[in-house]
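Letters spell out the chain; the tokens describe the backbone. To illustrate:

===
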Amino acid sequence: MTTPSATTPSSSPTSATDPVPVPTGGAPRRFGSLGPVGLVLAGGVSVQFGGALAVTLMPRAGALGVVSLRLLVAALVLLLVCRPRLRGHSRADWGTVVVFGIAMSAMNGLFYQAVDRIPLGPAVTLEVLGPLALSVVSSRRALNFVWAGLALAGVFLLGGGGFGDLDPVGVAFALGAGAMWAAYIVFSARTGRRFPQADGLALAMAVGALLFLPLGLAESGTKLFDPVTFGLGAGVAVLSSVLPYTLELLALRRLPASTFAILMSLEPALACAAGFLVLHQALTALQAAAIALVIGASMGAVRTQVGRGKAAVPPSAS
């Protein structure tokens, strides 16, 4: 059962970088025991291993078909689990959910178009530039510029130091996915403020699925409903959509967008780990150094945020 305060926006404007308390409820408390950083890391691991599974699915369903299955199955699961209330929301609430759903579906669609044209590593590297740009734009502390710059250096090292030999269309798709990723971060945070638990995510996923399903059917037709294809698509949806988006939405209620965006720079490192464990892709010394830079930047961002939170807490009277 939702409370009026959980579904009605605050009368005062809220910045995208302001942390928001987690509403009371069973699911956020259970997931929240991991801590906001743990939620982000768990979501990142899940999405990268889901991406490895998606590689096996693309020959069967195509890039657009994979996205359609991801969004469709994820929407069905979330709607059944969350059973979000459709009444009692303001026009601004619904507008936020619709934009969140558009950003989510566009982010997935553009990314799979990119990996259809360029290798996965450079695609993820280019995509991460969107959250990194968001971290710089939304940051309120000069030190965050240092962490963003360090993460950016690691991201470019992970991409091999240059992208001149890549298909320019694929590069454009990856950069577009990065822009949509930044929009996803902003509107995921706003959705988490306006809707209790994962209700807003379930509604946004349904919006994205409705928008993308015609594209998937146009590309793959009835192949999408082949039992094996649909089963693999369900696995991709759980690993790449249901778990990570739910965990990230809950994390954004307690992390500012700037810190969350720098944590997202861990995605290329997690992708390399998934590639090594699932696809047996070995890391070079340059890639290992890049991962160290990215992880160092993420740890620095977390330590900065923790220190800021401690400074904001008044000492006890005891």
Notes: The chain has twelve helices and no strands. The mean pLDDT is 75. Residues 137 and 258 are 8 Å apart (CA to CA).
